Amino acid sequence: MGKEIRHPWQLLYRVFRYIKPIMEKEYSSWYKRAGDIPDEELRKQALASMDTKKFHLQGGVVYAAQELVHAKDLVPLIVAYQTISDYLDNLCDRSTSLDPEDFRQLHRSMQDALTPDAPLRDYYLYRTEKNDGGYLQELVTTCQHHIKQLPSYAMIQERVLEFSKLYSDLQVYKHIAKPDREPHLLAWWNQYRERYPEIYWQEFSAVTGSTIGIFALFTMATAEHLAEENVQKVCNAYFPWVCGLHILLDYLIDLEEDRLGGDLNFVSYYTSSDEAITRLQYFVAQAKNHAAKLPNASFHRMIVDGLVALYLADRKVNRKQSDIYTVARELLRQARSVPALLFYVSSLLVRRSL
What we know:
With 354 residues, this protein is mainly alpha-helical.
């Protein structure tokens, strides 16, 4: 592992000096590639996902700052994998289909991307729009190429595939016909509730919607010798706590927008703003407690602060008439530390530049 990052200024310096230039180059390359997709609808959704979700890439590549020697593989890997995730989310969310078989076939690309030498499939098999000019398959093979460069990838492969399959399950259940969504999500939760007794069903769904646990494991796999104990610690910290905090914050800032649009939002299942504050504070506390037990603990604690800062810097949060303003302000007050405030200011600047 690289030299431990102990201070926020070190992390921000590494990100802006070394990681961001690689990310921007990868982003530009994939954006151009998306613009060449022959099918109009697929091209529209690929470009829209990159236009509106670039901050997902900006957040994901932060993990590569731990291992600058391996940034040339980690950054392209994270960018390609997150680009698949965002593209497929757009295809399903703004879909011409409500077919769960279609959604599952599309998301098999995410598991193939994590499986070295896995044969490529027709990921559009059950979809009317098919001709992406090889775009999705190229994203998959790019991931396959870079995971082969990670010395200890075999140690984490089973775990990242598990997280990826849960992510895909969520994408299927949350995008099917509206009357069927909640019953399927509840039935799915019943398979896992005994493993995660401290969280609610909607929180489990939120946890599975994050890719950052996969990125944390990618970074661990750069080590020549990786202890299974440390892999397990990272899994326990990220699933459910850090990943859960990540996506609950994501749903929090979209709460009013989703309410108006009639879209599924897991934060809306809390009975009141007070309950939402209590549960999100619980996730913050648990995420920080578990992060403190990890290798490179200071980095992972900064990730927790950074998540709070990144999402609460969103323009939607800063409308004082917003229903989420009280929740957001209380969370930021709880996280009022030098790292959180530094990341908050940095996130404001990043958000304003998008």
